[in-house]
Backbone:
């Protein structure tokens, strides 16, 4: 697209959304430094990378359709591995305590996004082949 100073190219909403999320995650990570030096505060501080990764996977799953069709199954597999890895780390961290609802909610959101993406991908595969895929 040709642009001039008078007519700048339109901004890509996807890039803006990702940039806004990245800024949010950076702010979230920075705020974790202020958590109290208690066992609960330490658990939360240690959980920041896992929470950010779950949010990132959730976002990526919302945009799975941006991948080439041939790459979507691999993307789903990677998402599943990442969700289980980071959900497992969070579950281990709170094994002796009740997991905070907001942490449980992030895990559930990521798993629900994965299930929805798998269903969409399965539906696409059935449409492409004219029947259920194996």
Residues:
């Amino acid at each position: 697209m040709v642009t001039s100073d008078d007519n700048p190219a339109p901004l890509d909403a996807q890039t803006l959304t990702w940039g806004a999320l990245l800024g949010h995650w950076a702010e979230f990570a920075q705020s974790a430094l202020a958590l109290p030096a208690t066992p609960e505060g330490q658990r939360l501080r240690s959980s920041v990378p896992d929470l950010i990764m779950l949010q990132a996977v959730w976002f990526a799953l919302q945009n799975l359709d941006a991948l080439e069709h041939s790459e979507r199954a691999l993307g789903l597999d990677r998402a599943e591995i990442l969700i289980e890895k980071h959900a497992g780390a969070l579950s281990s961290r709170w094994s002796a305590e009740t997991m905070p609802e907001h942490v449980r909610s992030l895990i559930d959101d990521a798993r629900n996004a994965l299930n929805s993406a798998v269903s969409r991908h399965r539906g696409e595969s059935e449409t492409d082949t004219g029947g259920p895929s194996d």
Q: What stands out?
A: The CA atoms of residues 53 and 86 lie 7 Å apart.
